[in-house]
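hiii so um. not sure if this is the right channel but i have a protein structure encoded as tokens and i wanna go backwards to a sequence. like what aa goes where. can anyone help
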């Protein structure tokens, strides 16, 4: 019983520490590349934001609509 708990703890520790060790090992090898072009994201039209909000609202309305359609045939 104790051996199983120790194995589980060791596995969890290995899963948690592996990314940290990989990050520490590769930290000195990475260098930032200079940005040559500016990003085109974020400069969108406010009309698109309003349209997206309306579409989300319509989708929520359709999803929670309480109209129970009864079947034609019984």
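sure thing!! here u go:
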């Amino acid at each position: 019983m104790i051996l199983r708990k120790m194995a589980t703890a060791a596995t969890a520790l290995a899963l948690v520490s592996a990314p940290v060790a990989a990050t520490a090992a590769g930290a000195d090898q990475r260098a930032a590349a200079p940005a040559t072009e500016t990003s085109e994201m974020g400069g969108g039209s406010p009309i698109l934001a309003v349209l997206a909000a309306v579409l989300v609202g319509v989708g929520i309305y359709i999803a929670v609509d309480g109209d129970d359609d009864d079947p034609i045939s019984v």
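oh and The two ends are 59 Å apart (CA to CA).
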